[in-house]
Amino acid sequence: CYRENILKTAKALVEDTKLLVSGAASSQDKLAQAAQSSATTITQLAEVVKLGAASLGSDDPETQVVLINAIKDVAKALSDLIGATKGAASKPADDPSMYQLKGAAKVMVTNVTSLLKTVKAVEDEATRGTRALEATIEYIKQELTVFQSSEVPEKTSSPEESIRMTKGITMATAKAVAAGNSCRQEDVIATANLSRKAVADMLAACKQASYHPDVSEEVRERALRFGTECTLGYLELLEHVLLV
Questions:
Q1: Three-state DSSP state, 212
Q2: pLDDT tens digits, residue range 193-211?
Q3: Which of 41, 63, 206, 220 is most open to solvent, judged by the fewest CB atoms within 10 Å of its CB?
């Protein structure tokens, strides 16, 4: 029942995505309608996914987290897409903002597809761990793209905060190695959820620290490079766990 509702609402959201992209080249009214429609649809989708997560029961919290994370990714992608649509409104087809819009639309569709795959995998206990890991790998790749962009973070933090956040990576690495050894679905799901948060926190702290007023251009470049290398190394680890 929940799966059918999620599928139907997600399909409607993909249609809203198409309207948003086409709306950038049309009138402000049409763009506003498309944005309002997508906001309504994402709210409905979040509700049916939450009901689906609740139906799993409290004895499987890690899988519930996987589902909630999947809808959070879709909501974030929609927010980014609406922002990109506003930036591209009334601009010529070859304007850089149009390429950003296409990129945002692609991420949106990728995340909706990922949500649907996750919903399907939840019904099959044998594939839950694998799917959770695949979704986490995709999420980390998207976070790395944001990290590598020229966008300056809204706030800065101290280098100490960045160092503190690397401890989460150490813990998640140990968990990933243990999951690769045990191959138990619940261990793999827990690893996926922990890895997702650990890497996202590390990337955010690293970028914020690298833009601290006391940090030189050279140190900033090194910090950003090491943040990227750490993430790529961690992605490789997760790929190995997935293979196992």
A1: coil
A2: 999 999 999 999 999 999 9
A3: 220
